[in-house]
Every structure is written in structure tokens, then in C-alpha cells.
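Reagents: none. Just compute today. F-box-like domain superfamily.
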Amino acid sequence: MSRTRYDWSKLCHDILRLILESLHYKDYHRARTVCSNWYTASTTCKRPLYPWRIKFNKISTSLFDPREDKIHEIQHPGIEFSDRNVLASCSNWFLMVDSGLEFYLLNAFTRERINLPSMESSILGKERLEKEVAWKHFIERTDIISTKKQACLWINERTGDYVVAWSIKQHYLFTYKKGDDSWLNLEGTKCVSMALNKDYKLYVYALDNSITIFDLYGEFPSEIVEENPYRNHPFSFRFVSKPEEHAWKQVVAITNSGEVLMIVSLKGLEDKRLFYIYKMDFGSCNWERVDSLGGEMLIFGHGVTIRAPILDINGLGIKSDSICFRGDDLWPLSQLFIPITQPMCGVFDLATSTITWPKSLDASVLKSFWFVPGHA
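Predicted 3D structure written out:
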């Protein structure tokens, strides 16, 4: 008796949507990568986007879902995370680098890995041997994990297309996208912060306070000049701040509608640690402070806002008009002569200027990173 084999990839979208919506989040994020049809069906599921936390252990990851208040453990056999560092994330994917400057993308749920070209061999090339020697002496392991590096990632989970940008010591900026032969060096771009959107546009906040926009879609990156309204209107915090306000970090971010924001981590009156948001008034061409993210939320340094749940999730502060951050994004407690007893992740409420810290102080919180599953 013969058996009829059914092609599950061809299930109608209504049935697929019902199946996907019935799954727990970890299984849902694995199932949506089965094929393009399942991924398309997943985009119609009524699942809210919100940040999770992830901790990279020695050979596994711990993923904390704040809505379910549950930690998912995923084993990664064959991968040693102790000498690898997280540079950026997009949806379920992380940009990783090891001490030998070997880059790769890693899916937190499916464990799929995409190796990127070697930085040394692809950027420098055999014909640039002298510079290669200088590069090897210039980049040290401490540089990879320092605050002097910036990175961003965008990936289309349906097509598999992706683009990566990475900067070190504010003097070197490299880009790579799927299909490129090697990393490309945007020479002369002194990057302080950057953001990357789905249109392959790279927004760079530079040392001279200017905002440069690059189009990464073509064979080589090209600067957008005429259509960059921010080009001749630099953002300088000292021109918009009060005497008692001192900036710690300044990052650029892009909203879902395409607006450019400058997010400032600072120390305010009575040493209060705060985040301020600025956007340019196109009438006056001045940067002005705004009090909200327009109902969206942001992970500090990730560069792109997300549509947030309106209500707080389990009292963790994760809601509209909030900023998720890691401990080193805030003004250092050591400079305020306060004992360091707070965890590495928190949420800042723009409406009340208050911080909500995680309820638990275990290792999964102290060394974890924010990411937003399913957001790309």
C-alpha cells in the first residue's frame, strides 16, 4: 500500500497562520524559517514585537522571554562563545566576531551560521602587505570589546539578504553585504555611531557632529548628498544642553517612518542618569528635544526603533516610549562614586525619566544583551 507524501510547504496561509500562532515563541521563530511560504504566513500572525534578553554561555545561549517570564536554553555544539563577542543584532540574528577578526552571523533560535569573509584577507589584500602588518599591530583583542567599536546589521529573513557595517576606533568603517567579494573600506569616515535600515541606507554620525548617509545597495557604497537634509546641520549636544548636563554617549537612530533621531545618554541635575531624544525641525533646521518616540521603543545603540506593546510587560518597563539599555550605556556609576550593584540591563521610561531594573540579579541578567525576535 503506497503512502501519499504531503508537501507541508504548500499549506494554505490561513491554516499555516493558525499553526504558527499556536506555537510558543521559541518554536514559532524556528518554524517561520522552514521555507519562504511559512515565513510569509508568519508575517500575518498577530504576535507583538518586544525585546528579549540573551546571554551567551560557553557552548549554549540563555534566552529570556519577558512576556512568558521564562528562560529558554539552546545548546550550540561545536561553538565556543568564550572568545567571541557580540557586535550587533537584527531580528533573530547576531553579528559575532572572535579574537582573530573572524566574523559570522548566528541565528539564536535555529543555530544557523553564516560565515563572513576574513577581515584581514578580504580588506587588506596581498598587495597591501605593509598596511596588513600595521593593521595586525593596530587591532588588539581589547579593541573588539571596547566602546570604541560600532556595528550594525540588517537581514531579510525571507530572502536571506543581509548587510553589515563595522567601525573601530572611530577611524575605520567597513561594510559587507551578501554577494560582495570582500569587505569594503569607507575611508575618511570617522564614525561615532551608525544605523542601518532595510533600504540599505547607512546613517553615520561622525566625529565632526555631521550625519552622513551612504547607499550600500550598489556594487560599491556611495554617499547620498543632495537628498541628505542633515548634511549641513550637525548635531552638537553642547549647543542644545544646559550647563549641568553632560553627555556620556550619543547615537543615531532611525524610526519606522524614516525620521533621524539623536539619542543622548547623559548625567543631569543631581547626577541623575538620563536619556534625551532630539530630532531636526525642518522649518528652522535646528535640533530640538522631543519627549517621546511616537509610541515606539528603542534598544540603545541598535539604530532602529520598533513598534512597541502599549502596556508594560510584567512590570519590566518594556512598553511604548521606552529605551532598553545595557549598563555601560549609562553614565558610569564609578564616576558618581556609587557602588556598582546594578545589573547590566534596564529600561528607561521617557515619560517619567525613571529606570526599571530586572527583578532578578542572576548571571542571565548581568551579562545579557537585548534583541527583538522577528523584527527586521
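Residues 131 and 137 are 10 Å apart (CA to CA).
Action item: order primers for follow-up constructs.
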